[in-house]
Amino acid sequence: MSDDRHQELRLLVQADCDGELTPRDAAAVAAHLEECTDCRALHRNLLVIKEGVHANVSYHEAPDHFRRRMETMFAANAPKQPGRRRQWGGWIGSFGVGAALAAILVLLVSAPRGDNGTEQTVLDGHLRALQSGHLYEVASSDQHTVKPWFDGRLDFAPPVKDLAAQGFPLKGGRLDIVDGRAVAALVYNRAKHVIDLYVVHRQNTGEASPREATRNGYNIISWSDGEIVYWAVSDLNRRELGEFVRDWRATP
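The structure assignment produced for this chain is given below.
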């Protein structure tokens, strides 16, 4: 396939997520997604962002200074497409899902959800990943493979640790949505149990000791360390999930 045709199909991925394509174009995109892993990952990320925005964002007018900052960023970074209307798919392909999510927030500002709302959000994301089988976008037990995968996809560098020696092997990572923004979800295992560790960047958070909660039979433990907030969620029993959290915090 020529580069021009590939780019044309890539630009149609966003419209496909929004259900705006003709049957002919939709069929062409579907066939392309079967063959192209990059566009398939883009398609998944767009669906995650779309679902997260609808689920977690309250609608408010964005401040003028925020609009101006975002408009300046896009003017500097968006690719020039003569004779073609710019589409989100092309922008995301050029400078990452994190920037695309910021673009969505040009007109939307997240309303604070509080800890209880975030607990439900991370549990929903965990269950969605389990049910869809989409646990990883990068599948690896090597922290030095998983960590750089997030470069350019997030606006911060999430810490990634290997806890195999403690009985919690790293399996991979993916992007997810928490409180209307893209975050890192690191995936660990304990026997047949999956542990999702959500890593969220929040300014002026400070440190907070682990706090436990249970929702619908799933255990959730949250804590913060500087500007990073963590949410560990699993159907693993509370004692062993607590061991995972202690091992994570003790591992440099």
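Interim note for the steering committee: The chain has two domains: 3-104, 114-250. The beta strands are 138-139, 170-178, 181-190, 193-201, 208-215, 218-225, 228-234.
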